[in-house]
């Protein structure tokens, strides 16, 4: 394994992994409406 090369790369990758874990666990609920994981993910980019 080559590693992350620098701190900023590691920070971005690990925060993305943690975000996906939060979505999978259902911890990201918008206004009390529990959407599917795909809808939650796509709502982040809009």
Briefly, what is this?
The protein has helices spanning 7-25, 37-43. The chain is mainly α and 46 residues long.
Structural summary, described in words:
It comes from Paraburkholderia humisilvae. This is DDE domain-containing protein. With 46 residues, this protein is mostly helical. It has one domain. It has 2 helices and no strands. The protein has helices at 7-25, 37-43. The mean pLDDT is 80.
Key traits:
mainly alpha, about 55% helix, about 0% strand, 2 helices, elongated
**Largest sheet composition:** none
Mean pLDDT: 80
Q: Name the poorly predicted regions.
A: none
- Strands, count: 0
Distance between the termini: 34 Å
SSE blueprint and pairings:
Layout: H1 7-25, H2 37-43
